[in-house]
Hints:
By secondary structure, the chain is of the alpha+beta class.
Amino acid sequence: MKRPFYQTFKLTVIGMALYAGVTGLRGQSSFSMQIIADNDFAVFGRTATSVNDLIYQNDAGWPDQLNNLSTITFDLQPGDTTFYLLGMGGGGQENISGTVNGVDITTISVSMSSDISPYLTGYDLGAVAAGTFDANLSDVQTALPNLTWGSPTINNTDYVITQSPTGQGFHFDDSTAELFEFDAVDVGVTSTPEPATCWLLAGAGAVIIASRGRRSSAPYA
């Protein structure tokens, strides 16, 4: 006997709901940044368990940093839920400011680490002052378990901060480097699930649709 129309319609609705659920979990992983630091910075991504990718390595002095980032779009890696902005000071007024995905970083919940510069291989104030020091992912991974965390100080008087899109930012101590940690969802960004999670969801959906199909194919009295 032919499957009644409403049974076919029901299977279609289930399939569409499953698809919407999976794509909804994927969320919006793309984002943009406009960050300005005195003097240098890098951006890292973290899953629930570990920092696992370098998103951006700045290689420009502070006057050029905003222009370098104004047209670049980035993506969180699968499973990433946390951003780390690594602000690196080359001496003088150390600070970091700007926006991630259009959100002023001083308007969300942010934690600041203790000084990470002793863990950064070859940390050189001259290269940092020029905006060309490269921070290694492995160094940040090594440092994280040894850091202490607190609330950063908001500043709106340091000269470089006043040149940022927001006019305010975070200040840190002379010639140090600090990590600024915040949740991706606080700037409207959610990463895709890790591949194993996607396959699990897809498999569950296939089982549900198959079982519905078997039940609805039984003949009607």
